[in-house]
Amino acid sequence: MNASSTRFVLAARVLHWLMAAMILSMLFIGVGMVASVSERHEWLIGIHKPLGIAILVLAVVRLIVRLRNPPPPLPVDLPPVQKLAALASHWLLYALMLVIPLVGWAMLSAGGYPVMLSSSLRLPPIFPVSPVAFAVLRHAHAWLAMLLFLTFLAHLGAALYHGLIRRDGVLPSMVGGRSK
Ligand code: HEM
């Protein structure tokens, strides 16, 4: 991307919307999964694990795309505190997209459970078996997912504020093109 670009590169936009749908689905699948004791629990967990690992892989790709293609600059008249909030929340989202799947994977490893991506594809453990670590990671996974949901809500609110109130071209930069 050159310095005058007013929108994110195509790869960044595709990854943004694809991952938004995947992550939102994952949050609801996760909550539905732990709230269910029927055979639906097994079915949901069978979706949750491979989808979570796919999010981890895409988050790494997205981070590389982001580092190689600086985003369009924020509007010059945006108050510094809002610029700081945007920067901090974007990097928090990147961190959570990487850390939550890794904590989920580590939690299952600590519990001694196999991490199956399909009936024959098994991922190696990334944490030694430990009931205490399993309990800690289980709580960490749930709390980090809650933090991700809250950050997502703030992100959505900011996008609507830019798109509907300020109308400063920030929202179109992730959708299609900036209007000014
Ligand atoms: C961005 C990726 C992920 C998100 C947003 C996510 C979200 C969640 C949420 C919201 C819960 C419910 C927490 C609760 O209310 O207690 C959950 C539970 C769980 N997640 Fe994830 N998760 C992700 C990735 C993963 C991965 C990669 C794995 C494993 C490979 C995993 C394994 C689990 C397990 C085993 C549970 C608990 C199931 C149970 O106790 O029945 N998650 N996840």
Automatic annotation (TrEMBL):
Keyword Membrane: yes
Domain Cytochrome b561 bacterial/Ni-hydrogenase: 9-177
Gene3D superfamilies recorded: Transmembrane di-heme cytochromes, Chain C
Annotated keywords: Cell membrane, Electron transport, Heme, Iron, Membrane, Metal-binding, Transmembrane, Transmembrane helix, Transport
Entries under Pfam families matching the protein: Ni_hydr_CYTB
UniProt KW Cell membrane keyword: yes
Membrane topology annotation: Multi-pass membrane protein
Cofactor: heme b
Location within or outside the cell: Cell membrane
Transmembrane segments: 14-35, 47-65, 85-108, 120-137, 143-164
Protein family (similarity comment): Belongs to the cytochrome b561 family.
PANTHER family, alphabetized: BLL0291 PROTEIN, CYTOCHROME B561
Official protein name in the record: Cytochrome b
Taxonomic placement: Bacteria, Pseudomonadati, Pseudomonadota, Gammaproteobacteria, Lysobacterales
